[in-house]
Specification:
Layout lengths: L11 E3 L8 H15 L9 H4 L4 H11 L6 H15 L9 H10 L4 E4 L4 H9 L4 H4 L2 E3 L14 H8 L5 E2 L15 E2 L24 E11 L7 H5 L12 H6 L3 E9 L3 E10 L10 E6 L11 E11 L7 H18 L3 H4 L16
Parallel strand pairs: 1-2, 2-3, 4-5
Antiparallel strand pairs: 6-10, 7-8, 7-10, 8-9
Helix pairs in contact: 1-4, 3-4
The chain binds adenosine-5'-diphosphate (ADP), riboflavin and magnesium ion.
Length: 361
């Protein structure tokens, strides 16, 4: 079937917060510290309410919800000065550096359009190596007559109204439905395919895998929902997500692969899903490695260490159980083949796979 004609893109406008920078995490961090001073505990409840709000609106929500004995403007001033102290700790989101480098290497002009004030944008990106030089234009909300109004999805609507092709990258999970106006909704920047938009393709994919610096998680094998073997014929040795919120926030949900070490048994190839299993729509994020080996028995409670070396694809929903199972078997083949490449096979000897303590590095 003929593909619908897409306009070929020659330049890219990027959003900053939640697209390139993990400022969501910073907001929680700052509020936590702030609320402690008033003897209150930040539980992340308000996060959904304050997305896309102006500072004063945010302040109103928080001051009211927590019954804080301070005026809104005091709250704004104090929280914002804490923000500026935190900016140096803000991390680039997965795939942000890769995208910026890629587009700038290929001479694709990039602009940064953010709902923050120009000065805030500049200080935010000053901590990110090479970013400032990569943008031909930076526009803050104080430089236009009417800044992007809340809610945050207006960014997508505004892009469409300007006749652009828009790719949305929701920063909160399970929010895809809020971005139906976008031409594409992706889970993270790792899933952006520039060639879809007439831009030069990434060249770092190797045999269906995207290599990453290795990352490490481990712990005792816990009980899952009892579905892997029973429903799919695919056992997954679940690990607890407890203690791994930082690592998990640095890596999007999705299908990954690497090496698995079981303390008393050996080291095996492994392919895994991390996330909410859209087909089953789990309420909790799970870490589910499938060890690519036939075992004659269960190994619950045994110490399992993972070295994750690359990414395969985002988690997806499927029209049937059969298509989900087929896809997971395809992931298995991709991982098995890739792990024989020297690039990945060298991590088989990582000492982390053999030690028996229960925390990652
Ligand atoms: P649960 O929902 O409790 O995780 P599963 O049906 O996913 O149950 O089965 C996972 C269990 O099966 C693991 O905890 C492990 O003890 C066992 N198991 C046997 N073979 C494998 C394998 N190749 N990969 C992962 N787990 C396996
Ligand atoms: N579940 C999904 O809903 N969507 C997926 O795309 C998906 N991909 C997976 C890939 C691999 C390699 C593995 C091991 C599991 C995957 N699952 C996925 C998770 C599967 O639903 C889960 O293991 C079972 O629900 C058992 O808990
Ligand atoms: Mg399991």
């Amino acid at each position: 079937m003929a593909q619908p004609l897409k306009k070929l893109m020659s330049c890219v406008i990027l959003d900053l917060d939640g697209t390139l920078l993990n400022t969501d995490g910073m907001f929680s961090e700052v509020l936590k510290t702030f609320l402690v001073k008033y003897g209150k505990e930040w539980d992340g409840r308000e996060k959904h309410k304050i997305v896309g709000k102006t500072p004063l609106e945010e302040a109103a929500i928080i001051v009211e919800d927590y019954g804080l004995p301070c005026a809104k403007h005091e709250f704004v001033n104090e929280v914002y000065s804490m923000f500026s102290d935190h900016l140096c700790k803000v991390k680039a989101l997965p795939g942000a550096n890769r995208l910026i480098k890629h587009l700038s290497c290929h001479g694709v002009p990039m602009a940064l359009a953010s709902n923050s004030h120009r000065a805030t944008i500049e200080s935010k990106i000053s901590y990110q190596h090479g970013w400032n030089e990569s943008f031909s234009v930076i526009v803050g909300s104080d430089e236009v007559r009417t800044g992007k109004p809340s809610p945050d999805m207006i960014g997508v609507v505004a892009g469409k109204a300007a006749g652009m092709e828009v790719v949305a990258v929701p920063s909160l999970p399970k929010q895809t439905h809020r971005y139906t106006a976008a031409d594409e909704v992706i889970n993270s920047l790792l899933d952006l395919r520039p060639e879809k938009w007439g831009l030069p393709p990434f060249q770092d994919w190797i045999e269906g895998t995207l290599p990453s610096e290795p990352w490490y998680i481990g712990g005792p094998v816990v009980k899952g929902l009892g579905r892997g073997s029973k429903v799919l014929g695919i056992p997954t040795a679940n690990l607890s997500t407890e203690g791994y919120s930082d690592v998990l926030s640095e890596h999007p949900s999705g299908v990954y692969f690497g090496w698995a070490g079981l303390s008393t048994r050996g080291v095996y190839k492994m392919v895994m899903s991390i996330g909410w299993n859209p087909y089953f729509d789990n309420a909790e994020k799970t870490i589910e490695p499938w060890l690519l080996h036939e075992f004659d028995e269960d190994f619950y409670d045994e110490e399992l260490h993972l070295v994750i070396v690359g990414y395969i694809r985002p988690e997806a929903n499927f029209p049937s159980l059969e298509t989900l199972i087929a896809k997971i078997h395809e992931d298995r083949k991709v991982a098995e083949r890739a792990l024989d490449l020297p690039l990945y096979s060298k991590y088989r000897d990582d000492p982390y796979l053999k030690i028996t303590s229960s925390k990652g590095q």
